[in-house]
Design the sequence.
């Protein structure tokens, strides 16, 4: 039977899921995880004020949300000290990344990311026919010099960097980022993904400069704000670049409930500060657990710790599998060199207790299974 | 200053909002509406069981939702009597429509819609460089013969029809739809948007045939289920077509809370039947109000009624504006012939009481303002 024809680009793409969800693993395993420490979620949860706001709004969700996200954009803009014309919001940074690729990338255009950088960004690059060019990390950090060289060599319209970094947790200082920005060609758009901005030292965050048309800063409510399951991210930039999101976005994309949750989260900065403290304490705890097992950790400004398992990627993979078998959900980087690590998200004490108990077992099993 | 270059397609697009939200109008007016009857929402609300499920889930939204929407797809498939391989879900039919256009439309390809058909579909056609070809309604219904002629004349890879129809509320019988499907070229994909399927007579819904690769059926939780503000739609079709959504969708697009809400809504078919009854009663009430004002209504299988204001589009526009001035949010079709109507969504008694009170005032004002 003849069938409808996919576009050549879509026909060429694999059906894929950039991240295998813990629910998928649970279904395969036939039992739930005891500790959910793999997706860089915030086990400390959203603020009680946010939970209360969502509960109160539950009866109102027969109404579409505001397609302009007006109140949310105003609140974000006020929080950041910029104009609402410099803010667009979307259902998660993932979605916003796709919109940016669609805005700037013609099929075949080069797009620069670090080797091992955020897979969902790469997914969108492939999805719009971009040509992904990757640059190895240096010392577990994005290599700004090499990224800049690649931009120039490839005449790339788009370059991506997460700062703080995922999956390694490392960060670059603001002055280094600023120098990178100033050295970029004016026609190259820089996506600076600051999903972990709230947990970063202030020294890692360059000042916002919304007069610069070639930088888009991305933030999210998924991490420190504890709202990964509600889908809300935002992008800050020059007004011409921000207005362009209205050309192609799904206007009702951020649910009404999510707008309520994000507004309430932003309003509760006291809770945010408290959680950032808990995250820092949990990072130290994970570092101590690793050290007690003779393992080095990578300094992190995020809500997770990359633990260097001390050998090759195959060994770290076995450690990962050993933890998953023992009902501890963690993930690990896939790219060379980084793949010597497992990545453990922060979480409440009870979950880290389980991790502490089972890491040595997983390490021993990984050691013996060679 | 040189700036990053949008793709030629994106550069050519306007920044727009396909629908101006009632919140935007409220901000402009400086006061809220008293009756929200314009967006085909369900003022009867989601089921109490759904509200309870959302309230219970509020503390869990620090977790990402399942990116495979596994449980939701299983439940939808079981509800429809198909396999989960024949179901994909997304954050609203709006989003799914965009994904379909992206899958099948190369720049310049013809896409067929009715003149005055769903604007957000047209927005996506423009957004991916499709060439929209429209076919006038006939007797306030989609004109299947003319749509088929246009498909063949334009060699169109894609044709869209909402049944029941928005913005007119009319419906076509299943056998007419089925004949249209059978007459379509096998390479033309037919999007059959059944957003209002739950309120339609059974005779309007063709049997599901998931062996046919060139029909995608769309459904939503936004209308009868009362969850417009949560963003959940789904698409049913042949497995090869369904799998293709995994090539380009945002995998975390449906929020965790939304998955909870949609699952609970699907499980409460008793509430759905009750609401469908309330919707039908409210339709009759709107018809009576119109008749009391000497106005004809278009028979509707949806959760709204198109009221023929009996004169031209300019008059109906004045009636619309008169209602909005009087704090009644309604909308109207923009396309020729259809634009003689205003479109009034069903709602609870108190809101329809206000509509009944203020429609005659708006009509009189519209009459006098010539």
Sequence:
């Amino acid at each position: 039977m003849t069938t409808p024809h996919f576009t050549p680009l879509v026909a060429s793409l694999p059906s894929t899921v950039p991240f295998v969800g813990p629910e998928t693993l649970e279904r395969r395993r036939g039992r739930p995880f005891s500790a959910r420490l793999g997706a860089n979620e915030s086990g400390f949860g959203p603020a009680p004020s946010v939970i209360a706001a969502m509960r109160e709004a539950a009866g109102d969700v027969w109404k579409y949300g505001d397609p302009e996200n007006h109140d949310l954009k105003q609140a974000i803009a006020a929080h950041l000290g910029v104009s609402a014309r410099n803010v667009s919001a979307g259902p998660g940074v993932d979605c916003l990344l796709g919109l940016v690729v669609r805005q700037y990338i013609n099929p075949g255009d080069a797009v620069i990311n670090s080797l091992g950088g955020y897979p969902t960004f790469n997914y969108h690059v492939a999805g719009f026919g971009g040509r992904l060019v990757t640059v190895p990390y240096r010392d577990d950090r994005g290599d700004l010099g090499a990224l800049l060289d690649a931009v120039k060599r490839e005449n790339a319209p788009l370059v991506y960097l997460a700062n703080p970094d995922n999956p390694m947790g490392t960060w670059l200082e603001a002055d280094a980022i600023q120098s990178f920005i100033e050295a970029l060609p004016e026609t190259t758009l820089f996506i600076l993904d600051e999903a972990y901005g709230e947990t970063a030292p202030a020294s890692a965050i360059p000042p916002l400069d919304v007069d610069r048309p070639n930088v888009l800063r991305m933030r999210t409510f998924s991490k420190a704000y504890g709202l990964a399951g509600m889908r809300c991210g935002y992008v800050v930039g020059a007004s011409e670049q921000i207005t362009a999101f209205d050309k192609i976005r799904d206007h009702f994309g951020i649910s009404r409930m999510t707008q309520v949750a994000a507004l309430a989260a932003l309003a509760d900065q006291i809770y945010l500060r408290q959680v950032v403290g808990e995250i820092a304490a949990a990072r130290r705890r994970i570092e101590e657990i690793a050290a007690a097992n003779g393992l080095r950790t990578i300094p992190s400004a995020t809500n997770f710790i990359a633990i260097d398992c001390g050998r090759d990627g195959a060994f770290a993979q076995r450690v990962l599998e050993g933890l998953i078998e023992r009902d501890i959900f963690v993930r690990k980087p896939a790219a060379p060199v980084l793949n010597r690590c497992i990545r453990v998200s922060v979480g409440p004490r009870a979950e880290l207790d389980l991790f502490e108990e089972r890491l040595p077992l997983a390490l021993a099993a990984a050691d013996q299974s060679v």
Summary: Chain B has a mean pLDDT of 97. The longest strand of chain B covers residues 215-220. The domain at 48-267 of chain B is CATH 3.40.640.10 (Aspartate Aminotransferase; domain 2). Chain B is about 40% helix and 15% strand.
